[in-house]
Amino acid sequence: MLNIRALQSNNTSFEADLSALLAFELAQDPQLEVRVQDILSDVMTRGDVALLEATTKFDRWTPSSAAVLEIDKVILHHALNTLDKSVRAALETAADRIRRYHERQLQPSWRYTEPDGTVLGQQITPLDRAGLYVPGGKAAYPSSVLMNAVAAKVAGVRELIMVTPTPDGVVNETVLAAAALAGVDRVFRVGGAQAVGALAYGTKTIPGVDKIVGPGNAYVAAAKRFVFGVVGIDMVAGPSEILVIADATTDPRWVAMDLFSQAEHDEIAQAILLCPDAAYIKRVREAMESLLAGMPRADIIRASLGNRGALITVRDLDEACELSNRIAPEHLELSVAEPDLLLPKLRHAGAIFMGPFSSESIGDYCAGPNHVLPTSRTARFSSPLGVYDFQKRSSIIHVSAAGADTLGKVAATLARSEGLEAHARSADMRMQQ
Asked: Is 331 annotated as catalytic?
């Protein structure tokens, strides 16, 4: 029997029930935090020596030297050229679609000239060097390599450094193939907090970067939090989420499997269905019961749905949209006949999948938009990873002589109102006498 919450929005206890459903805090383990800080400090102090020791300890293989940590580009291209033809074709299709989508995010530098000749504008430049963390071993995701690396390359990042752990010395060939396909410049066989430290501080072997992106375990997430400020980071991601708004027109098996698609990530992932039709919700539950037995990760799905899943009966689709905005999900599926009618009512979501044929899995792999999305309600104020995450904006201020006269008076007045006389005199000196 599948254990998943069944909630009704018209119940007096609904607000409390919803709060309990959404109340999730990725509590920090104080001992883990101390261990991560020790690892980072060690890498910052001892560099490659610390990396080699940590690789032996955590990845269970011993590099003969720091130089062994780097994977030659010949090996990357060999992995691509020997990859199963169908997998390579899928990677190439996905990479092409991701590239074409992200090219549309590119924005030019701009400027305008005021009547007195003053020129104002914005110059957009790519990062010099970015670091991409890629999980290794069983939790290896070549799709994440494409999503992060292609966006960085489209942005114009000069050098992209990838780090990936190789537990027991085992290299994931598909990840290497994806790195070659996406144009990653250098790849190192190192993972965990020590890899984040190497990217942040730099060692003799691994160059320091300007920003670190990519998913990882609790050690990696904690390390990214600690090094933020020394370098930029993309985000600290929480558990994966999906919210489906349905109007009872979609095959209930499709909705059931979409809920499974996020629940199978881990036991703390969240899958929620909002629908005004109680009979349809019953059919979805029955489909879930029927399909679960055939899922390879059935135990994880069952635990995830029991821990944080819900089937919620709402008054109507308008209320479903209101609740969706409160939840601010990572993935939002509009499994309805006319999704365009709902779209203007939705403000907070990482990615919005329109209509019954737009499965979240297509977005994860090959639709084109980035699958690195805000979680844990952060879609209220943040956006999917994109080209803009690998670029900077510099303001352009070229004041004319006439502008220095008129604007200088304004600046001097405001500076003196703040008690900053040097600021005021700096403006005064440039005024025409």
From this structure: yes
Catalytic pick among 330, 333, 360, 371: 330
**Structure-derived torsion over alpha carbons of residues 256, 257, 259, 261, reported in degrees to the nearest 10:** 170
Number of domains in the chain: 3
DSSP assigned state of 377: T
Q: What is the mean pLDDT of residues 375-381?
A: 94
Contact between 311 and 6 under an 8 Å Cβ cutoff? The reply is yes
Q: Which of 241, 264, 265, 331 is catalytic?
A: 331
pLDDT given at position 138: 60
Distance (Å, rounded) from C-alpha 374 to C-alpha 352? 12
- Residue among 172, 206, 170, 157 at smallest CA distance from 186: 206
Place of tokens 């005024």: 431
pLDDT greater than 80 at residue 202: yes
Q: Does residue 358 sit in the same domain as residue 251?
A: yes
Q: Supply the pLDDT for residue 349.
A: 98
Same domain, 204 and 309: no
Contact between 130 and 208 (Cβ < 8 Å)? no
d(CA 269, CA 265): 6
Longest dimension (CA), the chain: 87
**Same domain, yes or no, for 125 and 246?**
no
Structure tokens at 383: 């956006």
The SS3 assignment for 126 reads: strand
- State which residues form the domain around 166: 30-233
Say yes or no: 226 and 93 in one domain.
Answer: yes
**Helix %, strand %, coil % of the chain (to 5):** 50, 15, 35
Burial of 344 per CB tally in 10 Å (0-12, 13-18, 19+): exposed
Q: How many Cβ atoms from other residues are within 10 Å of residue 396's Cβ?
A: 13
Asked if residue 157 and residue 47 are part of one domain, the reply reads: yes
Q: In what order do the strands lie in the sheet with 110-113?
A: 110-113, 119-126, 391-398
Predicted confidence band of residue 184 (pLDDT cuts 50, 70, 90)? very high
Say whether pLDDT at 27 is over 80.
no
- How many CB atoms sit inside 10 A of residue 183's CB? 15
Segments in 275-359 forming alpha helices (H): 278-292, 298-308, 317-327, 339-342
d(CA 72, CA 318): 55
Q: Is residue 14 part of a domain?
A: no
Quick one: average pLDDT of 387-399? 98
Q: Are residues 319 and 404 in the same domain?
A: no
Is 330 annotated as catalytic?
yes
d(CA 392, CA 357): 37
Please indicate, yes or no, whether residues 244 and 222 belong to a single structural domain of this protein.
Answer: no
